[in-house]
Specification:
Largest sheet: 4 strands, antiparallel
Radius of gyration: 19 Å
Bound molecules: ligand 2BA
CATH class: Alpha Beta
CATH architecture: 2-Layer Sandwich
Number of helices: 2
Distance between the termini: 14 Å
Number of domains: 1
Structural class: alpha+beta
Strand order of the largest sheet: 2-3-1-6
CATH topology: Alpha-Beta Plaits
Number of strands: 6
Shape: elongated
Length: 112
C-alpha cells in the first residue's frame, strides 16, 4: 500500500448502522476500525468508522458507507400525558441514519 496515495476515511454513523457498515466494508476487503464516540450536540452515542485505503478505493468505500447508512424516517411509539394524569400512545416520525464522512490525506503509514 503506497502511503503517497493513501487516504484515511473517517465516517460518523449511527450505532444502529455501524455493524452493517463495518461488515460490508470488511466483505469488500477494507480494513476497518470502529470507535465508540459521542456527538457533541445530542450527547448521545454514535460510531466513528476509520478506514485507511488506497486513493483509488476511496470512492467505493464512501459509496458502501452511504448505502449502509441511508437517512430514513421511522415511526416510533411515543407517549404524552393528559392534564388529568392519563397517558396516550401515539406514533411520531423520527429521522435516523445518515453519515458524516471526512477524507484525509495520509502523510505516513506504518505497520510495525
Ligand atoms: P449530523 O450533522 O448528521 O451529525 C451527526 C454526528 O456527526 C454529530 O453528532 C457529530 O458527532 C458528527 N459530526 C457532524 N458534523 C461534524 C463536524 N463538522 N465535525 C465533527 N463531527 C461532526 P451530534 O453532534 O450529536 O449532532 C447530531 C445532529 O444534531 C446533527 O446530525 C445535526 O442534525 C444536529 N446538530 C448538530 N449540531 C447542531 C447545532 N449546533 N445546531 C443545530 N443542530 C445541530
Amino acid at each position: 500500500m503506497g502511503s503517497d496515495y493513501m487516504k484515511l476515511v473517517l465516517a460518523i454513523v449511527s450505532n444502529d448502522d455501524s455493524s452493517s457498515v463495518s461488515s460490508s466494508l470488511t466483505k469488500a476487503n477494507y480494513s476497518v476500525t470502529r470507535l465508540a464516540t459521542t456527538g457533541g450536540f445530542l450527547r448521545a452515542g454514535n460510531t466513528t468508522i476509520i478506514v485507511g485505503c488506497d486513493d483509488d478505493r476511496v470512492d467505493n468505500c464512501v459509496e458502501i458507507i452511504g448505502n449502509e447508512s441511508k437517512r430514513r424516517t421511522e415511526i416510533v411509539p411515543s407517549t404524552a400525558s393528559y392534564d388529568i394524569g392519563r397517558y396516550a400512545s401515539f406514533p411520531v416520525e423520527v429521522q435516523i441514519g445518515g453519515a458524516t464522512v471526512f477524507v484525509i490525506d495520509v502523510a505516513q503509514f506504518h505497520k510495525m
